[in-house]
Amino acid sequence: MARPLNINISIEVLTSENELTAPEKRAWDKAKEATNNAYAPYSNFLVGAALLLEDGTIHIGNNQENAAYPSGLCAERTALFGKSAVLPDMPIELIAVAARKAGTEAFLCGSPCGGCRQVMTEYENRQGKPIKILLQGKGTEIYRLASVSDLLPMQFSKMDLLG
Ligand code: THU
Questions:
Q1: Which among 41, 85, 135, 155 would be 20 to 30 A from 7, CA to CA?
Q2: Is the minimum distance from the CB of 47 to ligand 1 under 6 angstroms?
Q3: What span, in angstroms and rounded, lies between the C-alpha atoms of 95 and 67?
Q4: Which residues belong to any copy of the CMP/dCMP-type deaminase domain (predicted)?
Q5: Ligand 1 within 6 A of CB of 99
Q6: Which of 12, 7, 148 is nearest to 157 (CA)?
């Protein structure tokens, strides 16, 4: 007999930036600033990501496109791979992501792509500690997620590979 399997995910909706903690606000501002150095001449869609690390420092990334389209990389992965190359053992507290169209100032409501969710999952599992996520919501709202597993339920992880 078929039965439903309901998975609950939790998203906190903040009414504005004013509800962010001071470290969250620093990461949020850095993610927005990081859109300035996105290289997106093909999509004109500028994305910035900022990782708030356990020691309070911030590591940023932005999307880097290529004439051979699949060779480009999203902002979130640019940030995560760059940080992991230099500070592999430093836990990540939070990832803030911001996106806007080139030539415009307004940040868009949006959510990371599937590939970036998978990579976030890997690093969350690697550090054994949740990574919080901040995303632009509707209007002035900000979405705060307590863990990458709220963005990617039913994950494929090393447990599936190695048992
Ligand atoms: N992009 C990101 O940087 N992050 C995402 O999560 C989704 C998409 C970039 C990839 C590409 O450079 C542009 O946005 C349009 O897809």
A1: 135
A2: yes
A3: 28
A4: 22-150
A5: no
A6: 148
Q: Which fold has domain 39-162?
A: Cytidine Deaminase; domain 2 (3.40.140)
What does pTM read for this prediction? 0.96
Residue 12 makes CB contacts below 8 A (sequence gap 6+) with 143, 144, 145, 146
HSE-up (13 A, CA, CB side) for residue 117: 15
Of 65, 76, 93, 124, the catalytic one is: 76
Who contacts 74 (Cβ-Cβ below 8 Å, separation ≥6)? Answer: 47, 63, 112, 113, 115, 116
Q: Using DSSP bridges, classify how beta strands 132-136 and 92-101 pair: parallel, antiparallel or unpaired.
A: parallel
- Per domain, the residue ranges of the chain are 39-162
Per-residue pLDDT tens over the stretch 52-89:
999 999 999 999 999 999 999 999 999 999 999 999 99
Cβ–ligand 1 distance for 102 under 6 Å, the answer: no
Closest C-alpha residue for ligand 1 atom 6:
112
Atom of ligand 1 nearest to the CA of 113: 6
142 C-alpha vs ligand 1 centroid, how far in Å? 19
Asked whether the beta carbons of 95 and 54 are under 8 A apart, the reply is no
Sheet containing strand 45-53, edge to edge, reads 12-14, 142-145, 132-136, 92-101, 45-53, 58-62
